[in-house]
């Protein structure tokens, strides 16, 4: 079968590899119906060097179960399934607590140590299939709902995690930093959770227009001190927002989050931090009793909760896909996302 | 009157200054019955230079109201009062939300910009007396309850803030880092909130013995990797504690907090950070969905809640005072706390 591999920065290739097979009794093999390219895929697309071994790519996919191991009980051959961006056993204390991204037996896609490959491929061996996969009955492969279902594998659940861990509720003022797919779906999530005022910080008008469609009440395009001042101006009393959702992962976004935060407020980060150290002392977080939370979203925990509104068409998170490429065209998909000419790229087989 | 002044590091002097008077109609003048020296007073005691202007000291005191301004309504001359370590109007949105340390009109003691002096003195002008002071009826100046009431001005409320913001509740495993007065009272607070297992990290046996009396179930004296390993060993499944209370403020304590934290857990910091940057990236906080919270405790908000158990003698937080000096002896009190021969020093007039 074909699968996408990343070599050094900017170098993505489609290559032939053996078809996946059941290796353990808890495995399933899933034929990929749709996958996609993630904003976080751009981090290695920028940072990898010639010294890095090639790696498979892709951690978001929906597909059809082609084969299951002897111990798999909750999905069957032929099921349409959503694969979250982390695989998990579904039975450990963290999975039971809804924190599948900390599963004691789980892991992430594209991890050569576990022989686990990626979703930008024709098929994938899924470890711990019972805990990992979520079957959705009655979905045809060409259903118009497929793009929205695909967002439940990462970006929608990640935006939801930001809003949930920040404690967004009725009447809140919320700031969302970042107009990528996660930021836009954090806007949608904040609206679903009842926020009154949702200020989206982003400077790509096509994206922020979609953000308004998802529920943003204000858009601030400026960054840095000017952007912070404009956001604060919009908040009650000019004192900042009590809930800030950071969906970028770079240090300037972190600083913006701190800058617009109201005393006693919460910053939830879901953009994978591209830094290890950050300001957290008296002048940034401590002095105003700020709370910093978030992390890799346990999207598996949220599928059940988010699915009904997707199936009913009440929400359409799949609108974040504005470009479609075939698997063979995936290298072009990376280029277009990197150049910001595409917001999020859907991949067909 | 006499008041303590700090010059450069290690140089504390008692000097004569004019008696405080009412300057604004919202002021009160309080004669100090007991004040004390705080672990956080040791930070300037180490770091100040010859270039710093002298400053008054002390931010914890109880006393008797000697005079009030024309607009003061909630305290009267002769009242025994507790003065929290922050002064606040009691009416702004942050005060009403119980975050008096972010009061829009408030501030901290020993702030020359506001003409506000400190509690290590014979008397203090208290701004915004209605919002700041808490009157306790029926307390004689020589009541044995006075030391415990004095802890409500800072260290007890600060330990309580750590436990509260970490969300400590029934059955929890809690790690407390630091065996100073705040750490020990964080232990007491965690016990009051129902924690089952309270692991105290500290290496001064007299102090950790008091920690056991306050409710610590385990004591770990080692620090660094060894201390982290020992704490984890004690926690369920060896996976760390979900609630970690950091009552020191130095970077090694922060690293210990990260090291013993269970995935999905919360670190609450109440030790004033002596750093601005700290690890918060994938390897420290983000990857395990850790929450970082805490800050300057709004102790004013907690007095009403904590007072009954103090008045009934159910708890005795005043046990943290193991040395008493007169105001004239305050320089010696600093030395003894700095040399760790005293845990916390009570100051009589």
TrEMBL record, chains A, B:
<keyword id="KW-0479">Metal-binding</keyword>
<dbReference type="InterPro" id="IPR013154">
    <property type="entry name" value="ADH-like_N"/>
</dbReference>
<comment type="similarity">
    <text>Belongs to the zinc-containing alcohol dehydrogenase family.</text>
</comment>
<dbReference type="InterPro" id="IPR011032">
    <property type="entry name" value="GroES-like_sf"/>
</dbReference>
<dbReference type="Pfam" id="PF08240">
    <property type="entry name" value="ADH_N"/>
</dbReference>
<protein>
    <submittedName>
        <fullName>IMP dehydrogenase</fullName>
    </submittedName>
</protein>
<dbReference type="InterPro" id="IPR013149">
    <property type="entry name" value="ADH-like_C"/>
</dbReference>
<dbReference type="Pfam" id="PF00107">
    <property type="entry name" value="ADH_zinc_N"/>
</dbReference>
<feature type="domain" description="Alcohol dehydrogenase-like N-terminal">
    <location>
        <begin position="25"/>
        <end position="128"/>
    </location>
</feature>
<keyword id="KW-0560">Oxidoreductase</keyword>
<keyword id="KW-0862">Zinc</keyword>
<dbReference type="InterPro" id="IPR002328">
    <property type="entry name" value="ADH_Zn_CS"/>
</dbReference>
<dbReference type="InterPro" id="IPR036291">
    <property type="entry name" value="NAD(P)-bd_dom_sf"/>
</dbReference>
<feature type="domain" description="Alcohol dehydrogenase-like C-terminal">
    <location>
        <begin position="181"/>
        <end position="299"/>
    </location>
</feature>
